[in-house]
């Protein structure tokens, strides 16, 4: 897994590559490849921030060129996500890495915070690119292609601040009111989301704990080999055996470190992403409920109002359509997400198990070859010439 | 030591080593292999046996069980202790059946008593060590509790090793007290105390306190002492590191066990993945190693062996010196006396000096004999130590291999579960 590949055509993780191959409707028509790399620190009088290089390769007609390279900062990603959620309230938009560093969330021993964030940002963009609907978002295109100055201008074009505030107030009021009758399928969905989030949280915690314990194990283990080597210096008859044990321990220690790195780089990010997905899903449910609540409140208004009912009826009709679309979109995206989730998680765990098998095989080989050199005692045969 | 008078020129040197034993006995019967034919006024001749000679007959000793008991101690307070069942079997023919000949219960303090007795009566022999009185290298979340089953188990093995080593030592195996330890449950303590070995131990301690550095210590002993010192520190360090590593590894396994639980819960909500998750979870649980699989006793035994060896070496190297000071005589020489008185004093002095020289010669001989035998036992011990340690290291490797194989099995199964989903 070459994280520092300079080629923009290389997806940043084999996992997402598998995703792409399996879950595009037409697998050989993947036509948009994105990488995120090269973090750079910028210091201005007001703030310090990091920008990342976002490189795109595409064969799509609607793009003016086939290659793009822009620099984006975390805020820009946040903006994009917000726009996608607004345009498609009941689609499952992928999660972004956390805004702030939460102590203990980031595995510090081999990844800096920036590196972890970089990978997560890359995953985010690739998932958007692979999503059958989100991939055609205009904001997405702008994000990928607009030269750096232009993006800020484009961002300002969104709904004004006041109207945003207005919407939030209404949303709060509706949230208070609540949804009258959630259809059963969404009730089940909501139940699943809650349980899933909880399980993911636990798995995330367990895996981080394992990393921590293994780190401490490796640290202690590092002393074992040298201690045996030290002892070997005191002995003559035993020196060989002790030296052999010492070098086995050193090799096993290195193998353990490799395994630990694999765990931190491959399994942990996946689990963490799905913890964040849990939050996304909760948001999706809320937005869906919100649309239904809007409809219900309009219907209620219609029941009690005597005049202007034509206008209201029209509005109710529109809202009914809106709800219908939202539900359908969610239903479809839900299925897609479920399949993707299952694949991601099982392959991550399978890969982790594979790494463990290889680790034990390496250690086994090391110790067995040591025993072969001690054959005179081990096999309880008369001493042979040592190899 | 001062020269008494200018014309006494024979330099009197302290014997390099002096065996301890009966303070006024002649050549110790304990020294040398002829224990059976010992002449003796007062050697431990009556403590060797010609009948049941364990070295010639094949016997098996095992410490097979441990039992909690309550009883009253010396201060008539109730206490809980562990008693160990010591069984002795004799094997008449090489592949023949073993017959249980003796079986009795002993507690740790009785083992200690036996060992202290052996230490006093066989000062030039490396007496095997006993397992620790308390848990020294404390394992994961194990308190240093003498009632803890893991601790009791380790101690049981240590006690068995102790008895087996004594039984296989060419000299120690013939000791009567040892024989009685294995065969006579009641009254044994009284018999041991009747030998008066504690007094000897006391006088030995006194003598040790009276020592000063010898002028020409035997180089071999000094080297051995250095080696022992360094070895003990290396091994203690090694055991501590191993304990910490095992602790950490146990922690890793334990946390993996949590996967099992979460997978089980997760499988309840995820229909398609349900079965796979359940079985993967089950495999994770199995991966937790039991504590004592991570422990390895042999090396600890070796460390203790060496610790006890070191102590004995210290005693050998610094030696005990029986000094007789001529100081007391000088006042008599230079006091107010007539020439005739002085003449007779000098004569007495000369006689005493000559006697002293004789004693010294005898002690020197004794010393050399002692050194020879001690060195022989040390060589024997060294070889045994090398054998034991090599075996211990190899069995460590074997243990690692079996852990790896188990790991491969567990994770291959888990991988299959995941791949099938």
Automatic annotation (TrEMBL), chain A:
It comes from the Eukaryota. Keywords: Protein transport, Transport. Its main location: membrane. PROSITE patterns: PX (PS50195). The keyword Protein transport applies. Residues 30-151 form the PX domain. SUPFAM superfamilies: BAR/IMD domain-like, PX domain. It is a peripheral membrane protein. GO terms for cellular component: early endosome membrane; phagophore assembly site. It is found in: Early endosome membrane. This is Sorting nexin 7. The lineage of its organism: Eukaryota, Metazoa, Chordata, Craniata, Vertebrata.
């Amino acid at each position: 897994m070459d994280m520092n590949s300079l080629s923009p055509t290389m997806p940043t993780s084999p996992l997402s590559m598998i995703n792409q191959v399996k879950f595009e409707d037409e697998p050989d028509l993947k036509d948009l490849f994105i990488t995120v790399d090269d973090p750079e620190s910028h210091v201005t009088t007001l703030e310090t921030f990091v920008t990342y290089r976002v490189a795109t390769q595409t064969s799509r007609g609607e793009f003016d060129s086939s290659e793009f390279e822009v620099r984006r900062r975390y805020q820009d990603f946040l903006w994009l996500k917000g726009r996608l959620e607004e345009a498609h309230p009941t689609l499952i938009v992928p999660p972004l890495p956390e805004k702030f560093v939460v102590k203990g969330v980031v595995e510090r021993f081999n990844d800096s915070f920036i590196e972890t964030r970089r990978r997560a940002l890359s995953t985010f963009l690739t998932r958007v690119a692979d999503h059958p609907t989100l991939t055609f978002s205009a904001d997405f295109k702008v994000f990928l292609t607009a030269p750096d100055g232009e993006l800020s201008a484009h961002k300002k074009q969104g709904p004004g601040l006041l109207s945003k505030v207005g919407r939030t107030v209404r949303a709060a009021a509706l949230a208070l009111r609540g949804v009258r009758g959630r259809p059963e399928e969404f009730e089940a969905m909501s139940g699943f989301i809650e349980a899933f989030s909880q399980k993911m949280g636990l798995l995330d915690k367990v895996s981080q704990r394992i990393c921590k314990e293994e780190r401490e194990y490796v640290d202690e283990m590092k002393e074992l080999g040298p201690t045996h080597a030290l002892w070997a210096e005191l002995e003559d008859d035993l020196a060989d055996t002790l030296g052999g044990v010492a070098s086995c321990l050193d090799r096993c220690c290195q193998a353990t470190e490799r395994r630990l790195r694999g765990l931190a780089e491959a399994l942990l990010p996946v689990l963490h992403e799905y913890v964040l997905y849990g939050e996304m899903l909760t948001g999706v449910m809320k937005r869906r409920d919100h649309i239904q609540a809007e409809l219900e409140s309009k219907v209620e208004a219609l029941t009690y109002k005597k005049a202007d009912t034509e206008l209201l009826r029209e509005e109710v009709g529109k809202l009914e359509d809106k709800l219908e679309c939202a539900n359908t979109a969610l239903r479809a995206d839900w299925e897609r997400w479920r399949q993707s989730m299952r694949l991601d998680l099982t392959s991550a765990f399978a890969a982790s198990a594979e790494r463990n098998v290889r680790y034990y095989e390496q250690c086994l080989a090391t110790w067995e070859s040591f025993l072969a050199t001690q054959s005179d005692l081990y096999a309880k045969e008369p001493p042979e010439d040592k190899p | 030591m001062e020269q008494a008078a200018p014309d006494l020129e024979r330099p009197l040197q302290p014997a390099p080593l002096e065996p301890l034993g009966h303070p006024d006995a002649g050549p110790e019967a304990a020294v040398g292999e002829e224990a059976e034919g010992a002449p003796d006024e007062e050697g431990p001749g009556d403590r060797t046996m010609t009948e049941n000679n364990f070295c010639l007959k094949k016997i098996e000793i095992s410490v097979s069980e441990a039992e909690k008991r309550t009883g009253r101690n010396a201060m008539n307070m109730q206490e809980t202790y562990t008693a160990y069942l010591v069984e002795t079997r004799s094997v008449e023919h090489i592949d023949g059946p073993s017959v249980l000949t003796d079986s009795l219960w002993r507690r740790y303090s009785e083992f200690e008593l036996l060992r202290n007795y052996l230490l006093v009566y066989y000062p030039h022999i490396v007496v095997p060590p006993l397992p620790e009185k308390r848990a020294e290298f404390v394992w994961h979340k194990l308190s240093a509790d003498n009632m803890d089953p893991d601790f009791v188990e380790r101690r049981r093995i240590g006690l068995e090793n102790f008895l087996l080593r004594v039984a296989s030592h060419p000299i120690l195996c013939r000791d009567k007290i040892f024989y009685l330890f294995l065969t006579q449950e009641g009254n044994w303590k009284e018999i041991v105390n009747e030998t008066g070995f504690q007094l000897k131990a006391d006088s030995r301690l006194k003598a040790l306190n009276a020592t000063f550095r010898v002028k020409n210590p035997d180089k071999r002993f000094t080297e051995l002492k250095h080696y022992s010192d360094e070895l003990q520190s290396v091994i203690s360090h090694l055991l501590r590191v191993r304990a910490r590593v095992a602790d950490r590894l146990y922690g890793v396994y334990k946390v993996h066990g949590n996967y099992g639980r979460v997978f089980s819960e997760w499988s309840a909500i995820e229909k398609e993945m349900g079965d796979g998750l359940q079985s993967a979870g089950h495999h994770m649980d199995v991966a937790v190693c039991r504590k004592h699989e991570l422990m390895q006793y042999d090396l600890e035994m070796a460390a203790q062996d060496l610790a006890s060896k070191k102590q004995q070496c210290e005693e050998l190297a610094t030696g005990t010196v029986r000094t007789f000071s001529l100081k007391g005589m000088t006042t008599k020489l230079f006091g107010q006396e007539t020439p005739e008185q002085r003449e007779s004093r000098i004569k007495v002095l000369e006689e005493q000096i000559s006697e002293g020289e004789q004693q010294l010669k005898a002690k020197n001989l004794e010393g050399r004999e002692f050194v020879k035998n001690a060195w022989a036992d040390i060589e024997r011990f060294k070889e045994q130590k090398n054998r034991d340690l090599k075996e211990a290291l190899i069995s460590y490797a074997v243990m690692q291999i079996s852990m790896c194989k188990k790991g491969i099995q567990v994770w291959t199964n888990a991988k299959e579960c995941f791949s099938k989903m």
